[in-house]
Every structure is written in C-alpha cells, then in structure tokens.
C-alpha cells in the first residue's frame, strides 16, 4: 500500500485550487511539489476579481490557516451591485452589503494567488515547469512528461491546470465545448481620478445592464482598476467573419459601440473611455456530468475536473477541492484510498454545480435573444 506520509505528490498548476491543496499538505508536514507553466508569479495577468463564499472558498482558506489573512486584504464593499436600465442608464436595483451579515468579499485573483503562494515553503512552486502529458504507470504511479522533454515520476499527480488541462486526458476523453457565449473584455485604469462619472455610476462593486441578447457589465478590482465585459452570443471566432483584428483597437471599439448602440451614453462611456485592449473570451465548459473511472496515481481538481460557466462558483469549488483532497490524503491510510474518497464527494458536487451554472448562463444570456433573467450573478474568470 502507498502511504501519503512518505510519497511524492505533484500538483500541476499554481492556481487557487492547486495552491490550497499544497498549503494544507505542507501545514501538516507533508512534502509537495507544485509545477507551474508560468515562468514567474508576475508572468501574466491573473484575471479579475473573485467573491469567496462563506461555505466554500472561505472554508478552504480556514482549513489552510489563511482566512484571517484573506479577510485583512479582501474588499467586502465589492459586494455592492447595481442593475441599470440599458436604454436610460438609470439604476433599477441597488444592493449594498449589510455590515456584519454573511459576506462574499472580493479579492483580485492575483492577490489571492500571491497570498497562497507566499504561505508555502520556498521552492515549493517550480516556475516555468510546463507539463506536456501525464502518463499513468502500471505500478500505480504517474509519470509527467515536461515541455523540455524531461520526465519525472510521482506517486500522485494532481491535475489543477485549468480548462485546457494537460493532465485530464490521462483520466478522461472529455474536452471543453463552446457554450455559445462570448465575453469581450476591456478595462479602465485609475477610474476614480480619470473617469469620475463612470466611477459614480459603478459604485464599489459590480454594474450590470441587460438588453435583448446582450449584457454590458463592469467590476471594480483593486487600485482603481475596472474590468468591463461585453457579453453576447455568437461564434467563438465571430471577429473573423466580422473582418476584425483585435490588434486594431479602434475597429473593435467601433464594432462594440454598434453592437450596443441602443445602450445609454453613460454606459457606453465604459467602452469609449477604455484604457486596456479588447480581449476575446469565448466561454467553454466540460460536459455535465463530467466523471471518470478512477485511475491510480492521478486525479483532477478545479477547472481541470469541472470547467463550468463563470457564474461565481469556479474558484470557490477549486479551493474546496484542493482543501478536501489534501485532508483526505492526511486522513486515509493510502494515497489510493484518499483519492477515491475525494472523488466520491467531488464528482457529484461538481456535476450539480455545473448543471446550475449551465442553466444560469442560459438565463443570463438567453439563446432566444430575449433579455432573460434580470438578477445579479457574480462570476470568476478561470484561468
């Protein structure tokens, strides 16, 4: 039998889920290696803001001994939400967080990654270590093939490497499918100083305006940075048929303004006054339910296991996955017993969450082109 106490564990991917798993293991004296394709913590932007839920993300941080550190840097004011009439720009619904009430405070994804990574022993994360393939071995271990051609064997490989996981094919033939929904992202910097009218409209959290088949939304991040998303249904490469090159910022801006031309001018200021480039982000999701037959020496967590529409659950579930897998590894007699116990809970939970997110996306941007649900989901942008 393979005991976790003296075996080699590799986590592929230094996102919130993978780092949470590594942190919980290290807290209890168990060695772990995190393999990350990024060459450094600052090699690329980490995405937008996340709301961490009391019953998932915050539970995982408590298990990791980091909840107080998180609460010290989180932004509870980021829970503010304004629904705005698309045609007039008037506020229809204004939700403000109640002091002392159950909260889902916001934190920038990069800050969360930094908090988790800083909690690990030096050298735990091997930056610039891109995995090409995971190959289960006959003896129950798993061999990793790296992009540089080298290999390394582990008693357990945890695929925490996101939507386009290189580890997933070792346990599942499933691949992400296009959802039919596109997010086009841009941003504004130093919003309070440079864009005061936009800042007043936005408040401290999220703004959303819906019209038939389209959504314009904006979210505050830290340090006056605002991310803007223009959401609609089209082909994933819609810009090709439209004759657009995303390097031609003026042309993309003009196209977006035409697509949203029935929106109020104070809302279109989010597009006209943008500072960042436009980025095409078609949404993909794994089939529901995504399940697999247990394979010794390997498992998945987070988006690698259950990529779903980004409606506020992805990062939270990834962190719970990481904490629960680590806890099972600490509790069970063998690695295989631990992985089986973890998968028996994670797979049905993620299937239910993915089903809800799929239904939520349909009501958020209905496929029939109607305005759909006018509620206010939050979302996290998975890596």
TrEMBL record:
Superkingdom of the source species: Bacteria
Pfam family, one: FAD_binding_3
Location in the cell: Cytoplasm
Domain FAD-binding: 9-179, 298-350
Catalysed reactions, as listed in the record: a tetracycline + NADPH + O2 + H(+) = an 11a-hydroxytetracycline + NADP(+) + H2O
Top EC class for this record: oxidoreductase
Cofactor field: FAD
Binding site for NADPH: 44
Record keywords, A-Z: Cytoplasm, FAD, Flavoprotein, Monooxygenase, NADP, Nucleotide-binding, Oxidoreductase
E.C. designation(s): 1.14.13.-
Predominant location category: cytoplasm
InterPro entries associated with the record: FAD-bd (IPR002938), FAD/NAD-bd_sf (IPR036188), TetX_monooxygenase (IPR043683)
Binding site for FAD: 51, 109, 303
Domain notes per entry: Consists of an N-terminal FAD-binding domain with a Rossman fold and a C-terminal substrate-binding domain.
Protein family: Belongs to the aromatic-ring hydroxylase family. TetX subfamily.
Task performed by this protein: An FAD-requiring monooxygenase active on some tetracycline antibiotic derivatives, which leads to their inactivation. Hydroxylates carbon 11a of tetracycline and some analogs.
Assembly: Monomer.
The protein's name: Flavin-dependent monooxygenase
């Amino acid at each position: 039998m393979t005991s976790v106490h003296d075996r080699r564990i590799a986590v592929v991917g230094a996102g919130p889920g993978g780092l949470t798993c590594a942190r919980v293991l290290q807290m209890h004296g168990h060695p772990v290696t995190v393999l990350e394709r990024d060459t450094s913590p600052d090699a690329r932007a980490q995405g937008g803001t996340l709301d961490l839920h009391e019953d998932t993300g915050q539970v995982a941080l408590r298990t990791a001994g980091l909840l107080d550190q998180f609460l010290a840097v989180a932004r509870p004011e980021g829970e503010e939400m304004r629904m705005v009439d698309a045609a007039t720009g008037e506020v229809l619904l204004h939700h403000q967080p109640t002091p002392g009430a159950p909260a889902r405070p916001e934190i920038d994804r990069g800050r969360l990654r930094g908090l988790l990574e800083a909690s690990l022993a030096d050298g735990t994360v091997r930056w610039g270590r891109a995995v090409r393939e995971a190959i289960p071995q006959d003896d129950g271990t798993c061999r990793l093939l790296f992009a540089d051609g080298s290999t390394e064997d582990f008693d357990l490989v945890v695929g925490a490497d996101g939507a386009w996981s290189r580890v997933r094919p070792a346990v599942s033939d499933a691949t992400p499918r296009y959802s039919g929904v596109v997010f086009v992202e841009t941003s504004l910097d130093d919003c309070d100083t440079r864009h005061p009218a936009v800042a007043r409209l936005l408040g401290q959290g999220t703004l959303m305006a819906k019209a038939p088949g389209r959504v314009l939304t904006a979210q505050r991040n830290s340090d006056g940075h605002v991310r803007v998303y223009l959401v609609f249904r089209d082909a994933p490469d819609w810009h090709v048929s439209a004759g657009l090159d995303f390097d031609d910022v003026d042309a993309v801006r003009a196209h977006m303004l035409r697509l949203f031309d029935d929106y109020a001018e104070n809302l279109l200021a989010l597009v006209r006054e943008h500072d960042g480039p436009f980025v095409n982000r078609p949404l993909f999701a794994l089939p529901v339910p995504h399940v697999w037959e247990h394979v010794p020496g390997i498992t998945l967590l987070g988006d690698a296991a259950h990529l779903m529409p980004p409606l506020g659950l992805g990062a939270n579930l990834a962190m719970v996955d990481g904490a629960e897998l680590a806890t099972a590894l600490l509790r069970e007699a063998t690695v295989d017993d631990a992985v089986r116990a973890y998968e028996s809970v994670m797979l049905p939970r993620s299937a239910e969450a993915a089903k809800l997110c799929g239904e939520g996306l349909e009501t958020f941007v209905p496929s029939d082109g109607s305005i759909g649900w006018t509620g206010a989901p939050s979302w996290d942008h998975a890596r």
